[in-house]
Amino acid sequence: MLVSYKWLSEYVDLSKVTPKELADTMSVTGIEVEGIEVPEEGLKKIVVGEVKECVPHPDSDHLSICQVDIGEEELSQIVCGAPNVKVGIKVIVALPGSRITGNQKIKKGKMRGEVSNGMICSLQELGYSDNVIPKAYAEGIYYMPQEAVNGDSVFSYLDMDDSIIELSITPNRADALSMRGVAYEAAAIYRQTPKFEEINLQEDTSEKAEDYISVDVADKEDAPAYQIRIIKDVKIQESPLWLQTRLMNEGIRPINNVVDVTNYILLLFGQPLHAFDYDKLGSKNILVRRGKDNEEIVTLDGETRKLSAENIVITNGEVPVALAGVMGGADSEITEATTTVALESALFNSLSIRKTSKQFNLRSESSSRFEKGINKGTVSDAGAAAAAMIAELSGGTVVSGASTGSELVVPPVEVSVSVERANKYLGTELTDEDVAEIFTALGFDYTAANGVYTVSVPSRRWDITIEADLIEEIARIYGYDKLPSTLPKGETVAGSLTDTQRFVRNLKGTLEGYGVSEAISYALTTEEKAGQFSMKESKATKLNWPMSEERSVLRMNLISGLLDDINYNVARKNSAIALYEVGHVFYQEKDPLKDLPYEENHLALALTGDQLEKDWQTKAKAIDFYTIKGILDHLFEMTGYQESITYEATQNMKEMHPGRTAYVKLNDEIIGFVGQIHPLTAKAYDIPQAYVAELNLHGLLAGEKAPFVFEAVSKFPTVNRDIALLVKEEVTNQELTDCIWNHAGRFLKHVHLFDVYQGENIEAGMKSMAYSLTFANSEATLVEEEINGAMKKIEKALVEQLGAEVR
Predict the structure, then answer these.
(1) Which residues contact 802 (CB under 8 A, 6 or more apart)?
(2) Which residues neighbour 12 within 8 Å (Cβ) at sequence distance 6 or greater?
(3) For 315-340, what is each residue's pLDDT tens digit?
(4) pTM to 2 decimal places
(5) CA 650, 656, 660 angle in degrees (round to 5)?
(6) Rounded Cα gap, residues 664 and 685, in angstroms
(7) What strands lie across the sheet with 413-418, from one edge to the other?
(8) CA atoms within 13 A on the CB side of 724
């Protein structure tokens, strides 16, 4: 909400309060101020001028040579390129030595050989944005009013010497989305009573609004209040300068003297209004109803909208003429040909307005107020004030009364609070007089008995419904900074980590010990990346209104984010990269539009580049599959899962290399995968060869692991035996080591693969694998017969089960 300091000063005496002081005070009483802007800041020596002569430039088809009266004895020659410059208009002149927007300095110079003493300015050159400049002046210079004095500074005429205070309004304080609401707030702070002009509505009693139009509301829940006023014999023209500048300072584009009034009343009362061209309605009946499926309306922005039963529409009895509370229809808009205005003032169902605004991506000043709530007690007053103002500015006449389709009677709201209760909550020692003074400052009527105050809450403060709301008001106006500070009371409990937190922290410590750095990626990504590297079937969880396509879907993997990080680093000449991330992924098995996704905590690794750098005594060694698998093995060993983890080669993941990828299984349940990124995937991410792994930490935490058992150091020696096997090349190391462990007996302590060979002297399709087996008995020295027996069982099992040949 943008608040004009000068406008606010019309209702509250701020003569002794600077805009900065006002902003600081409002911030500490509950309405945050984002900032203050003075439009004239950075501008200087910009005055009113009058074009006395205007002739075409002899060497240009678009420039004009103007003689401009700037309040000095002689006329000043200025060359102007605006298409709408002409004799007799008052304009904005930047004198030589002046500064316009962007700190640009204007100098005396020549344009195509003709002297130009300054510049005739458009509003854009004074810092106004294109979306608030009247369309008539969007492509040219702005006309000042004829009563403006030549040579005077333009800033006071355009209200650029005002201070515009930007408020950050929380949803519970929607009453501050109006100048009247802010005036009540400022008045309470400075213990004043705001003064508003009385509505001077003069009506033509010879006719009634019901004679022009009838109003019906199909469902009073959709439009609890709805009325139409008629203003006849209007003349559509530009609004006066004071109204245009007031709207522009509030971020609204001036249109004409009717539409501008509806926007002005919107800002003043917080009550959205809409003006129809009565003669274009095509009917003498207004029907407020729900839209029909595939029914269409062309809105003011020229777009054709397909309606549904979610939308409340205003119709002429048959076809829609406006989207209720959101945007009017193009067929009934106010134009220069309008002579009779049908002015709508209403209250609509906030949920329906929000859905309609969201459906059509049409968020307006009106829809935002209907969504958050408006003052139900001033619906009629706002309509009457707008009708009176339209009649005054357009020379029209207000027809007597209003045609009413529904009318809301606002029930009185009374809330009670005791001084004792307020002091107990706030830790204060307020007296009855203090509380009474605060309620008086807020403009709340009240009765008091035995320290209990019963407050009649005005309709403008519909956020106050319970005792706690009144206590909050007392605290705000008394001053949050005056509330006493106390330490918490009661017993305290020492904090500790949960099992999950301790487990994740140990994982991170281990990985960082390996030189892997933590990365934190966005949880939102593209739909394509979200579906990659997935370990289970899932629907995508999409945002309804994402800020960009790159951040539109919740991720279902962590690896895609790490690959983006690798891309970022590689593009900046960082080639040796080792990253990990612990974070949530989001799976959706039901309807993404109705059901929330469930989350799993995952760990992902991504490595690329060299694990050893080239130096004077070693060669560079690139990261390979066994580098990342070794890190996982160490993680499982550190966490006690080494006995339960197995690897199974897979070709089922299209983003992974089919010959260098394996599932990670915990007790035969897949909890992740490890391997090389497919070359095509690496190319798509524009990264070099990379190896990745992703684990479901929920699976690890839920899985059973071997207990950690301390053993005394054995007094007896260990015995090592080697075994070399010739097996088919499709037989895996996992199968061989499992077979060895299953048949070695209780004295086998360690199995180590120390050689793999394929090539000369080895039959095609076969490979040689050599293992070192370590045996030990903590109770006695192993004898040769025990070890030989164990080796025979191992050899027999390898031959029978895996077709191995013992070499």
Answers:
(1) 727, 731, 735, 736, 739
(2) 183, 186, 187, 190, 192, 194, 195
(3) 999 999 999 999 999 999 999 999 99
(4) 0.70
(5) 55
(6) 25
(7) 413-418, 452-457, 445-449
(8) 7
